[in-house]
Amino acid sequence: MTVxxxxxxxxxxPPFAEIPPQQVTRRLAxxxxxxxxxxxxxxxxERAKQSILDQLGCQIAFAELPWSRQVYRTIAELGGRAxxxxxxxxxxxxxxxxxxxxxxxxxxHELDDTFLGIPTHPGAVIVPxxxxxxxxxxxxxxxLLLAMVVGHEVMLRVGLGVAxxxxxxxxxxxxxxxxxxxxxxxxRLIGLDDRQFLxxxxxxxxxxxxxxxxxxxxxxxxxxxxxxPAQAGIRSAHLARAGMTGPASILxxxxxxxxxxxxxxxxxxxxxxxxxxxxxxxxxxxxxxxCHLIHAPIEATLRIKxxxxxxxxxxxxxxxxxxxxxxxxxxxxxxxDDVLGAQFSFAFSLxxxxxxxxxxxxHYVESELRAPELLALARKVVVEEDxxxxxxxxxxxxxxxxxxxxxxxxxxxxxxHQKGHPQNPLSHDEVREKFQRLAQLALLxxxxxxxxxxxxxxxxxxxxxxxxxxxxxxxxxxxxxP
Length: 482
What we know:
By secondary structure, this protein is of the alpha+beta class. It has helices at 24-34, 42-62, 66-78, 95-106, 122-137, 141-161, 173-189, 194-204, 214-217, 227-242, 257-261, 267-271, 295-308, 324-330, 339-343, 346-356, 372-378, 387-392, 428-441, 446-457, 467-470; strands spanning 84-85, 92-93, 114-115, 283-284, 315-322, 381-385, 399-405, 410-415. Helix 4 (95-106) packs antiparallel against helix 10.
């Protein structure tokens, strides 16, 4: 008897060595479905731990910002089966909703990590999704770390295939490439077989999205640009487990992701060196609370200020040197209308550096947006493209500053690798200190913060890692609506 309404089933994946190089999606799926914890170098696992700690710090610190409260209220009102924890509030909801909320918190104030080679924000996409699904599944710490690495590697490798012009086309990379990484990570945690795993990647491609118009105008929608793929990837994995199919050529096909999203894709970069070259250690942990393209000019400005010690009132003109992407991405807004606009403005950010002495969470606030002295100095900033900085972009977000004083004295500084870059990384202790600072800022009890640090440090030995998120709830908050 013929069943005419049954969906076609994708064939299983053959061994990796038998998959032709041009079948990029199948090769990616086979490799990361077969990857085992023991196959992952210790340095990669350590970097995955740092990513978890950094993201938890960002989540707890930014959970009660205005846009984060809007996300929380929406998730709380939608409801859902009590599976996973929303950080800060303690609400228990389904894994998709928890991942969406926690991801929005993590990406809520431009202090989450960046992978410069694409560029994108892998931590705020992968970590909340892995922790939400892992909590529901009561996964071990080893399983969480394996899923973390799988998610990072798949997301970043897909991103490398379209890195040359994805941003130029106006696509924001986290919601564009993030669904693939989360689908792979969630697929490993829920035990998809080879056919389902391939389908999960195929389904994830239909969720790829994200537009960059906020870089021209500001607006808070950017705060959910990591939450969208976190939720979408989890849903992709579950749809695949239920039997839905997706294109097995979603990456390389004529109407697939790479050819539709960009003109100058490079399919070879997606699978090159798998098992020998790892993208996860290339993630940069941020030290300043703004777009990563602004960090090098901030460091250059701080060096000039420390060396010369002049009064900012003596400044006649500041010239920012950056890449072409830096000029387009952060060189438009001078007088921001909202906090996001300030965090994507060379002019306003350098005014904060010079007049407020820093570019932290406490500096990018609504009350500063109309400060006359900040706006007056911001108007003295001009942004110019620099040939050397353009040459090294996006592997380095290099930048420099030329500061001309009244009377003609000019001071300049150039920074190739800002603090946090893989070639100038935060140390183990500095990552811990950043988490502790953010936890204190959020008024998370010290005993809870210490418990999180201890669990992350020995995560590979933890049989049930669901306790991680239970320590990330402030007792005074509960699950009440803000």
